[in-house]
Amino acid sequence: MKDPKNKNQITRRQVLYLGGAGVVGTLVGCSNTTGSTTDAAVDGGGSDGSPPADGGTLADRDPSLDAAMDAAPDAGPDAAPDATVEPELAPPLFFIHASDVHIGSGGFALAALPFFLDEALPYFDVLAVLVTGDLVEVGNNLDAWEIYRTTLDDRGLSADTFIENPGNHDSLLDGPLQNYLTNTLAGRNGHGTYGLYHIGTGSDLIRIVALNTVSDGNPFRDSTGYLTESHVDQLLAEIAADPRIPRETVILGHHPIDTANGLQLFGTDAHLERLIADTGAVTYLYGHVHIALDYWFNNTLMSQASTLGNPSSGTLTTHAAFSVLALDDGPVTKNVPLLGDSSSLSIAWPVVMITRPANPTLGLNNPLVTNLPRATPGQILRAGVFSPSAPSQVTFSLDQGTPQPMTLVGNYYEAEFTTPDAGTCEIEVYAATSDGTASDTITINLA
């Protein structure tokens, strides 16, 4: 097994630093168009005399970029899935969701971003990092944007696996988001202020829909959130024109959908509802409020990340954090707090999250859960375990019984178990590493 602390070794997790070229199964590419030219106020072009930044198509871009992204094409959109893998047992896929970096808000943000990139991200074997806005404190602060841009560039991050969308602070005080377009990976690599990305290959293809929920050009609407109908029309047209059928669709925004501090205030939540319904999105990831929160909007998980760089002491925004998103038996998230202060940040390792079976209490009441049968063998248990050092032990127990071993399969752990003859069953997954010990526990319902 490779030593995760040896950063000279090239592992799958390092694709985020290497940019994805030549790494099989990690990156398929972005959409055929990178944004809309029909809605200049949303796209950040035109209203200040500058050209729209989102008007290009894939054909207009450097061919070498697309060659790197499509290094290992699958057999085509109509290819049958691998017959050896049952569709409902496709492997879990992991992502990092971070939000509200707020460079320029103070010393904590200046320390948190490099800590996140250097001391956290390398130990999560994920397909992509999804960053949902408020990258800087004030959008016309060029010094803050310079810090943000160079911090990412110094680490060789790729615009196709480090996916950004804007927040309301990024639009201050220039609603068209010109500084966002000039300094973000998305803006500098043809993705504009919103668009489509495709991560993975074949039956593991994930579509990422990145929204611009801020740049209406009106400071009040930017702050509360605003999503135009033409913005959604453009994205749905691009999706309809793309023959690929993703395993799941994930939508990124910055604002909540259904609160007075979000899209509901100006009625544009209806546009996001239409996008969710038409794409069958499994989750909507956002930030803005600086509190980690999961709840359900029909069958879509609304997952709000805490702030990465601007915690407030003495308020409900108790700590800085990011989230791990897993797509397995439905979506599941794990909040990962940053511990300490700007002079000494850390994470409580290892991070353990059960991805299958689904947790009935995720978001209070998980509508995607199906009760497992009682007294039945062959049930599948999966968990992600992330740590700088390889686990020396990963076990599971049922109803606090005898620990049983789990097997490493790719980048997750798996075991089979027999459900008890009871109405419920508590499942605990425990991991021990040289960095610490941790566990995750869920209680499932049996029928």
Outline the low-pLDDT stretches. 1-85
Class by alpha and beta content: alpha+beta
Subunit organisation of the chains: single chain
Distance between the termini: 41 Å
Question: So how many helices?
Answer: 10
The 3D shape can be described as globular
Percent of residues in beta strands: 25-35%
Number of strands: 22
List the strand order in the largest sheet: 1-5-6-7-8-10-9
Average pLDDT number: 83
| Count of the domains | 2
Question: How does this model look, in words?
Answer:
18% of the residues lie in helices and 27% in strands. With 447 residues, the protein is α+β, with helices and mostly antiparallel strands. Strand 9 (293-297) and strand 10 form a beta hairpin. It starts with 14 loop residues before the first helix and ends with a strand. Mean pLDDT is 83; it is low at 1-85. The chain is globular. Helix 4 (107-120) packs parallel to helix 5 (142-153) and helix 9 runs parallel beside helix 10 (269-279). The strands form 5 sheets. It has a 7-stranded mixed beta sheet with strand order 1-5-6-7-8-10-9, with helices on one face. It has helices spanning 15-18, 40-43, 63-69, 107-120, 142-153, 178-183, 185-188, 219-224, 229-241, 269-279, and strands at 27-30, 93-98, 128-132, 162-165, 195-199, 206-210, 248-252, 283-286, 293-297, 300-304, 321-328, 330-337, 339-341, 344-346, 351-356, 379-386, 393-398, 404-405, 407-409, 412-417, 424-433, 436-445. The protein has 2 domains: 12-347, Metallo-dependent phosphatases (Purple Acid Phosphatase, chain A, domain 2); 348-447, Immunoglobulin-like, CATH 2.60.40.
